[in-house]
UniProtKB/TrEMBL annotation:
InterPro entries: GH, GH13_cat_dom, Glyco_hydro_b, SLC3A2. Residues 43-106 form the Glycosyl hydrolase family 13 catalytic domain. Gene3D superfamilies: Glycosidases, Golgi alpha-mannosidase II. One of its GO terms (molecular function) is aromatic amino acid transmembrane transporter activity. One of its GO terms (cellular component) is basolateral plasma membrane. It comes from Cyprinus carpio. GO terms for biological process: carbohydrate metabolic process; L-alanine import across plasma membrane; L-leucine import across plasma membrane; phenylalanine transport. This is 4F2 cell-surface antigen heavy chain-like.
Amino acid sequence: MKCHGAVIERKQHRMDCKGGLILVNSNKIPVVKTSMIVYVSRSGVSEQLLYLKSLGVGAVILEGLFRHDISPTNLTEIDQSLGTLPQFTRLITESRKAGVRVMLDLCELDLFEQESGNDTDVWSGPSEYIQYSLRYWLEHGISGFGICDTDAAFSAKTLMEWNVLIQEFSSQDDERILMVRQTGNTLPALNVSSIAVNGSLVELVTKSLIPPTHHPLSPSEVAEAMEASLQMPQGNWPSWTVGGGVPLELQRAILVLIMTLPGTPIIKYGDEVNPVQDLDQVNQPLALFHSLSQSRAREEALHFGRFTFLSFNHSMSSSGLNSTATPPLAFLRSWGCVHFLALFNLGSEPHTLDPDWAPSLPEGGVFVTSTGLDRYGPVSLRSIKIKPHEAIVIKLFESDNS
């Protein structure tokens, strides 16, 4: 691993840091995609706008705004139990002023089950009515829409129609995007599938890191799911959500993973992003979230950096590692001469890494954060002991002769 001179390749990304926030001056990477996105499914969002912005959240996706028990779905009428339309439009205005974009979750709605009659009899069909509804919300300041790949809307024809409409309202300073939630191992085939994935039709593809199951996963099963996800081809890399059930003891490690992987972190509000915490307990998920959020805001490598999965030789990755123990996982995020190492021990036994576990890496670095928030100062990679259920982030030091 060599670094010539002190020049860091920035490609087309220029960044200004103001506190914990990142402003990206690039028309190829929308602000919504480079910030964190939070799913919100409850009222009271307006009171949390400044709080969410302080965490580095760039957009909220509102769930449950439209009633699922009514078919066909009326996309211009929100669930009255959540508030009135004037209240909602005021929320959009306040959010935009605070720098937090609002998106609408349309997953699993009966969008194409429109029947003639009442307000829909003036439309030639469901597609025309949906186009009208999307335009209605875009004119009110909505920054995008999310659908599932199992929805009828996930088709080449519909995606192209929606994309034309969204681009009509999108600009470099006010991007509007379409997001697809991937529910399976791969996206369903489309005639323009390669276009849909690379962002021409769909700006953001999200996928669950942990597959949904009918039973809580064991630490070893979580580790297997993580390893399979981390080794997928980068050309198809999505933005990750947590997804399936994660054991309580691994939730902080998974939070570290979500916040250090490439792509946009997709967080569920009320879990990691909780405005209430016990001030007597510093090792709360919120404190860890703050630490990770600040690191992402400061470091280009954690936004745009190249991802390298580090394979362990299990016979030498840990002294005393038995055949049934969960092996550690690790990866690098690199941007020019700057490298971040993320280490994960999801098992119930500590791991002392072999001194020669990664001979190509610099020998030393400094702790950035850890699940216990109890690691500080410089560290040698040749003498790391990872505690059970622990995740560690280290900023590596390049030596003059490396």
